[in-house]
Input
Amino acid sequence: MPEMRITEQRDGGVLTLTLDYPARRNALALPLREELHRILESAQGDNQVRAIVLTGAGGTFCSGGDISGMDVQDSEGGRERMRRTHRIIRLMVAGRIPIVAAVEGWCVGAGLSLACACDTIVAAEDARFMAGFGKVGLMADLGLPYTLPDRIGKAQAKQMLFYGTQMNAAAAERTGLVDHVVPNGHALPKATELARFLAAQASLPIALTKQILAEGLDRALEDERNFQTACFLSADHAEGKAAFLAKREPQFGKR
Output
């Protein structure tokens, strides 16, 4: 297995988590998902953790899901894969701890989902955002059909999800996808500054506010679980995955 890990750094009430999977530009492989869930669940029970910063190593936030590790054979496997991933999204969106994303470089697919599950997104000027799920015959997941329209509205969300176009940091700030744009190399310091502010606030009002704002999340994730499982088992996903691994354009709709 290539080296992959999530590093943890504590500074007072702020816990900084760094995705580090250099072979795949921090793609969210299954082992990383399991580790992220373990850390987030542990943090929920640690009253000393009052804010979290999520970032990526090597100048990339997250390049998406690890396509090479997608091998769903039946509906039970697809639903279980989504169930395990959704544990992360519930902890991020509806959990008690506020989370700030520090985005440098690419934030694509599952990476975009992770960023949008955070409460605040800080982006460097070189950050690039894209959904990209359609290229491999999948719908957006990890809560993105819920969190993206919540940030930028349904009409703008459709443009990102249907067309798969890139959005730079300046455009992302204009649409509301990003909350702060900073010079390259300064996303993490700015995110840490904001996390320290949050860590110094009364924690219960923040936790309850997150809970209220997450109303409807469970229904959205259950729909996503069923719909994405159907996509996993489709001929278009098989073609999209094969095309991605072969570095060619997919030919959808052909049987």
In short: The chain has a mean pLDDT of 95. The first strand starts at residue 5 and ends at 11. Residues 5-184 form a domain with the 2-enoyl-CoA Hydratase; Chain A, domain 1 fold (CATH 3.90.226.10). The chain is about 45% helix and 15% strand.
